[in-house]
Design brief:
This protein is an alpha/beta fold. Helices cover 47% and strands 16% of the residues. The protein is built from 6 helices and 9 strands; from the N terminus they run αααββαβαβββββαβ. Helix 1 runs antiparallel to helix 4, helix 2 crosses helix 3 and helix 4 packs parallel to helix 5.
Length: 220
């Protein structure tokens, strides 16, 4: 399995992942409303409604009336079994992603080091960025910081995530597209911020249909 295969697999798993999140929240027995679920899981309210209808139709959830004219959702035995199955499935997917991404990041950093790179910036803070950071520790390459569109005062390991527009202020040899989910959006924004294409590196495919003016380095 390679990163292209994982990309297709993850795209196909996005719906089941949201279903797993909903099943997990409902299994806690706190009777959240659809609006509560939307806010907590960061899923559009209309999508929450659609997913719940689908889960009900499959027999994974039942509904009961509760006071204040609200509905309470409960997992059925079939729903608990499905939650277990989806949990295993997504743990397997993440493990596969970790294994492949770790190998590819090490290959990327090894090549950059041999070519004389001694410092990098990350663009995009998600699970893939964490894998990239752990891989970088094996090389004598300085980590100069990380930028993201939604820093929200979060920390990345011991570093504060900086606003994306600061990317040009940080001196480094290369910018690493370190997000898997937002890779096309991030690559496009880096170009718009004036970062030269040959200074941008990524292990993930960035397809032309996302950004067909300046395809990612190495993409044809």
């Amino acid at each position: 399995m390679n990163v292209h295969d994982l990309n297709r697999e993850k795209q196909g798993n996005q719906g089941t992942y949201k279903s797993l999140l909903l099943l997990d929240e409902i299994s806690k027995g706190q009777h959240p409303s659809q609006r509560d679920l939307s806010k907590k899981l960061d899923i559009a309210l209309g999508l929450v409604n659609s997913y719940i209808k689908n889960l009900i139709s499959k027999g994974y959830i039942t509904i009961k009336d509760i006071p204040s004219k609200r509905y309470a959702y409960y997992l059925t035995p079939k729903g608990f079994a499905e939650k277990t199955r989806l949990t295993y499935q997504h743990l397997h997917t993440f493990t596969s992603l970790y294994t492949v991404a770790r190998k590819d990041f090490k290959k990327l950093f090894s090549g950059l080091y041999k070519d004389g790179a001694r410092s990098v910036i990350f663009a995009g803070a998600d699970e893939s960025a964490e894998i990239a950071y752990l891989s970088l520790q094996e090389f004598d390459i300085d980590f100069e910081g990380i930028v993201d569109n939604e820093p929200a005062d979060r920390d990345f390991f011991r570093y504060r995530i900086m606003p994306f527009e600061r990317v040009k202020e940080i001196k480094a040899d290369f910018v690493i597209v370190s997000s898997f989910v937002k890779r096309a959006e991030i690559y496009k924004q880096l170009i718009e911020e004036g970062i030269l294409p040959d200074k941008i590196k990524s292990i993930f495919p960035i397809y032309k249909n996302f950004y067909d003016v300046n395809p990612a380095p190495g993409e044809k």
